[in-house]
Amino acid sequence: MAVYALTGFSLVSLLSFGYLSWDWMKPSLVADVATDPMEKSLPPTFSRPPHIIFILTDDQGYHDVGYHGSDIQTPTLDRLAAEGVKLENYYIQPICTPSRSQLITGRYQIHTGLQHSIIRPRQPNCLPLDQVTLPQKLQEAGYSTHMVGKWHLGFYKKECLPTRRGFDTFLGSLTGNVDYYTYDNCDGPGVCGYDLHEGEDVAWDQSGKYSTFLYAQRVNKILASHSPKEPIFIYVAFQAVHTPLQSPKEYIYRYRSMGNVARRKYAAMVTCMDEAVKNITWALKKYGYYDNSVIVFSTDNGGQTFSGGSNWPLRGRKGTYWEGGVRGIGFVHSPLIKRKRRTSWALVHITDWYPTLVSLARGNLSNVPGLDGYDVWPAISEGKESPRTEILHNIDPLYNHAKYGSLEDGFGIWNTAVQASIRVGEWKLLTGDPGYSDWIPPQTLTNFPGSWWNLERLTDGLRKSVWLFNITADPYERYDLSDQRPDVVRTLLMRLVHYNRTAIPVRYPAENPRAHPDFNGGAWGPWASEDDAEEWEDIGEPLKSRNKKKKCKICKLRSFFRKLNTRLMSNRI
């Protein structure tokens, strides 16, 4: 039997604050908005391919939007969602690179070699070049394609850059997090560089401009200079609300009564981002795009509770495979939706946007077989059943193996020490170490001793390596049914075995000192030459494959490192 320990507060105290009374099905939070019944029968104006605006926010928690009962003001997101379709059974990945790679490729990360962690600034790694990306498919369909914001899919050589992967223009950062004003990013002590790029050049002249404002202004400029008669795709990947917690003072002032400093700054950043979305929507209407547009809003992973985010009442946080890490905020707003102003419980995953948007654009999917995503537009627009019945959250063979997992615990078919998670129908299975597992209420209070936010902690799960939940009946993952339903556990383990047979080797190469910004004019950017890139292509391949390479090539690589280390020592870096 699970034992729950409350730190700093009693259960009664939490209830008195309303934290445990949040009703999953409460009408005021997620139910359909009343509408004219005739409106649902109106056909969309779909005479030509729609303009597509995809907005992705960074580290925004599930609780951190007004229509989920948040204390943070998001009037624009609330209105757009209320007038469109809220996706309340929508899943993303628990960290940055995996979500972005699956959005751009329509494939699970086990099928791109990116199933472990993120792409780090000094790694010779990027989104595999053999993958046909979403913007490339939209270009084929006649779209003008633009990206504004955070890339985080690798940049060690020029072929990895957004402008080489399907985007006509790009303004944004290549790494995972930068200062919102100076655009500096440090990947360890003394390894710092500038990271704001315009196309393939460093945008030194934009330093000092708050990124949320800068990106919204760039979208406005793109729309003003393009003809609404020609289809356009804009991928807006806001840096907000990832750390560092920075916001213009006027937004922080609105939350001056919020006791927790991190939550106050975080709330200000969310509201600022909400206003940026308002400005983008206004520009769509001003320049004549809106009536033939589809706006998709998505978060990239769960909120980071140590930095002001909240996924309440879900379990876990960013970086975990609990619902708090993988269930996202999502909605679609469009005049082209047939059944507007409602909530959809259709199962949707971030990989589904690739085939859905390419189909909306009347593009060709026949030459990209093996996608893991589904076309879910009929489910969104018409309320039809989702074609998706299961989601592979991930299989990560490199993540620290759970101490108490074993092949025996996995019925002899799966090593439960391996971190993995899958959902099939209403059932969700986790194996290995799923990550931090507490339920963390919104951090609006202050002056609590110690780690006060761990208000409800599961204390007996440390020796486990298998969990099973009925997510439909138990969305907060409070009742582990793995012991009661071994039949379901075995069935889902078999699905993991099936997916694992299709996985390609993990690509997670060692960091290269040549990536240091000091060798690149003080900025993060491509550092490998064409010859170097060939050397690095081998890293991350299976051992047998690498052993087939000529010995002289290995010698050349070792010689390169010896010379580089000598140079680094002479520069005292």
TrEMBL record:
Task: Spell out the molecular function terms from Gene Ontology.
Answer: metal ion binding; sulfuric ester hydrolase activity
Q: Give the Pfam families listed for this entry.
A: Sulfatase
Instruction: Say yes or no: keyword Magnesium present.
Output: no
| Cofactor or coenzyme needed | Ca(2+)
Q: Which InterPro entries does this chain map to?
A: Alkaline_phosphatase_core_sf (IPR017850), ARSB (IPR047115), Sulfatase_CS (IPR024607), Sulfatase_N (IPR000917)
Q: Which domain of life is it from?
A: Eukaryota
Every Sulfatase N-terminal domain range: 50-361
Which UniProt keywords are present, listed alphabetically? Answer: Calcium, Glycoprotein, Hydrolase, Metal-binding
The record ties this protein, via CDD domains, to: 4-S
Family as reported in the entry's similarity comment: Belongs to the sulfatase family.
| Name recorded for this polypeptide | ARSI Arylsulfatase
Question: What organism is listed for this UniProt entry?
Answer: Halcyon senegalensis
Organism classification: Eukaryota, Metazoa, Chordata, Craniata, Vertebrata
Give me the gene this protein comes from. Arsi
